[in-house]
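Before relying on records like the one below, remember that each one covers exactly one chain. Contacts with other chains, cofactors or solvent are not represented anywhere in the record.
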Amino acid sequence: MFSSLSEKLDKVFKNLKGKGYLTEQNIKDSMREIRLALLEADVNFKIVKNFIIEVEKRALGQEVMKSLTPGQQVVKIVHDQLVDLMDTEGFECKVYNNKLTKIMMVGLQGSGKTTACAKLASHFRKKGIKTMMAACDVYRPAAIDQLQILGKQIDIPVVTDSTKDVTKIADKALNEAFRDMSNLLIFDTAGRLHIDVEMMDEVIRLKKHVKPDYIFFVADAMTGQDAVTVAREFYDKLEFDAVILTKLDGDARGGAALSIKAVTGKPVAFVGTGEKVSDLEVFYADRMASRILGMGDVLSLIEKAEEALDAEADAKLAKKMLKNQFTFNDFLKQLQSIKKMGPLDSIMRMIPGLGSKLPKDFKIEDDALKHVEAIIQSMTDKERERPELLNGSRRLRIAKGSGRTVMEINRLLRQFEDMKKMMKRFSNGKDFKGIKGMPDLPI
């Protein structure tokens, strides 16, 4: 989402880093470029003004002007200021195994509120929290069906009722949650295309009746400053606790994520990063600032890997690699684990030094690895364990079975052998000098 902003800031910092020392004019010129970049990213103009004042004040201080690496010092100042702008101030949604926590989700129609309910439920279920959802959006015909379908996908019960009275639905959900000994109950509430008195009265009434532990305002990041304006109106009426920003994987310019905390005083708690129910991340201001400045996000990458990979299986695989016993069966398991981590282009943007170098429109389709999987799955178990058996006729059979060309089969086999050679050198304690990295997969 921040690709355009990241690109513009990267140009500013490259220019600064190229100078042996900075002058007041250098810094003022850079601040002008940063101001334009933020305004074009749809950040609230008052926030931009204050942001630039703070950065410029620090950049003109002795810590930068006398630094051996002034350009890098300015980058650090901008990073710190971005963190301050989005700081969650230690906010954490705490759910326990010995009590029922109630969460109300509010927002406009089309913001992704119903999907966000399922994503949040799935997020806590992974932590071992017994979860239930209540369908309190009784006006949009598809809302109840949508929540039920999502609940079935993630095996989380959804409480519904034929009544239009949301307080009765809430009572039914509370009774079922207590009876089922659930630890988390998420209420999906009604939304409108715009804020109106009837909708606000209903969610206020539901809030008084349910007495939720948390209220999350769900905002569509694609709507930019409109999302911030709506958030402020919702906060005036409901005093929500935090924000969930959806569609952060889209083409939005990022203004909502950078402005919402400063305008409402409430932090972004979670961000939706894709269409899948698993595509929800806890929001960390420092990690987001690093992504915006092209520094990558190693911690989030590690967390995704830990969630997707099996530590015990990885330990066994590491031993096989060191003994040079790595097979196509092992390779296939690794590909499937990588797919669980999320879209490949998102993962690559988290890698320090790589994210900022990728083009703004860089995209890897979700099924990019399917061709490789198809080739491996078209092999027999014996061929996967012993690739040396793959003669011309076997390769032709695999090509027909996978719908790929013999050339692609040959390329994958070469890559696999290159990888095994690298592992062998590593196991022998040798360096990697003279060995090229694996070429692109045949996708």
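The domain at 302-427 is CATH 1.10.260.30 (434 Repressor (Amino-terminal Domain)).
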